[in-house]
Design brief:
This protein has helices at about 20, 25-35, 50-60, 80-90, 125-135; strands at about 1-5, 40-45, 65-70, 95, 120. It is of the alpha/beta class and about 140 residues long. The protein has one domain: Rossmann fold, CATH 3.40.50.9100. Strands 2-1-3-4-5 form a 5-stranded parallel sheet, with helices on both faces. β3 (about 65-70), α4 and β4 form a beta-alpha-beta unit. α3 runs parallel beside α4 (about 80-90). The chain is globular and about 35 Å long.
């Protein structure tokens, strides 16, 4: 099974950025522990602050991977292009958010990802990614 985690803008700063909202663990450390725990899965990771690079990665993996876990971060609320890219591919996408976006500013309540995602997991910290990964393992 091949799963990719795709992270959007500013998520490269996890562990440093607003630890009260996003926690104090870096994504690299979290990802390493996830790979060890789920070592039978081919798990890869991509992060970019650039919208077009995220769209290109979705298109690149959207026909050959078994699942995409996507945290588009702020682009969730602004990118019609990322929403359209998800609609155009065959691989199921789980939308993930570290924080509960519905408990935050109102502009974060809108998602251009959700209408085309297989599911949404929000508000469980970094555990949200693991929950998304587990959803692909359920027969």
């Amino acid at each position: 099974m091949k799963i990719i985690i795709i992270n959007g803008p500013n998520l490269n700063l996890l562990g440093k950025r607003e630890p009260d909202v996003y926690g104090s663990q870096s994504f690299d450390d979290f990802f390493s522990s996830l790979q060890k725990k789920y070592n039978s899965i081919e798990l890869s990771y991509f992060q970019s602050n650039i919208e077009g690079e995220l769209i290109s990665k979705i298109q690149e993996t959207g026909f050959t991977y078994d699942g995409i876990i996507l945290n588009a971060a702020a682009y969730t609320h602004t990118s019609v292009g990322i929403g359209d890219a998800i609609k155009a591919i065959q691989t199921p996408v789980i939308e993930v958010h570290i924080s509960n976006t519905f408990a935050r500013e109102e502009f974060r309540h809108l998602s251009y990802i959700s209408p085309n995602a297989a599911g949404i997991i929000s508000g469980f910290g970094l555990k949200s990614y693991e929950l998304a990964l587990q959803s692909f393992l359920i027969p």
